[in-house]
Amino acid sequence: MNIISKMIEKNGDFLFFGLSKLSKHGLLGAVASCILLSVNAFAIEDTTTSHVKFSGQFVLPTCDAAVYDANNTIVPSGTVLLPSLDSTEATTIGRSSIGEKIVFKIGPVNPQACIDVPLTQFKVDVSASGYSSGNVLNNVSGSGPSNIGVEVLQEDGSSILNFGDQASQSINPNDVNTTLVPFSAQLYNKTGGAPNANGYILSVATFTTAYY
What we know:
Layout: E1 2-4, E2 7-8, E3 13-18, E4 21-22, E5 65-69, E6 96-108, H1 111-115, E7 123-130, E8 132-133, E9 136-137, E10 148-154, E11 166-170, E12 181-189, E13 201-211
Parallel strand pairs: 3-13, 4-13
Antiparallel strand pairs: 1-3, 2-3, 5-6, 6-12, 7-11, 7-13, 8-9, 9-10, 10-12
């Protein structure tokens, strides 16, 4: 699921930010992967046996996660846009966030249905991981500025990307909006100075949600 998309060129920026989700107690978003194997036989002088494991699961879609904007409105495309910046606006004296901070939220596609599962503790935990330096996701596109990344934080400024960090929130069963957990995303100059290249920024994070 794409969260943020933006273009960095001479007069603009591109940011692509991906999301996938998981959860506990059967309230999971499904993630699938596949393996492609290639086998060539040149002689029958030696025979080997390979064991390939396949796994899958059936999940309840009730708390499947989605992306919301700051006004608690679901974003059908899963894409949150950051304001455009030119190279001058992206130039800083030292390490610094750049551009406007955008609030987005992670929550169930159908919050009321998620509450009605039923939950027992009325609590949600969210953690996140990705190829990052501290709170800043690195650019992994290979064709853009390596010194510009994406800073992802909890809305209150707390860390979410560092190992072991997570956002915990109580849920009011009478307020579906309390199932949505707020975060912020902002472009970040990791070295100071101007962007060291034009091109794309691709940053990816994985959010894991657990509703109890």
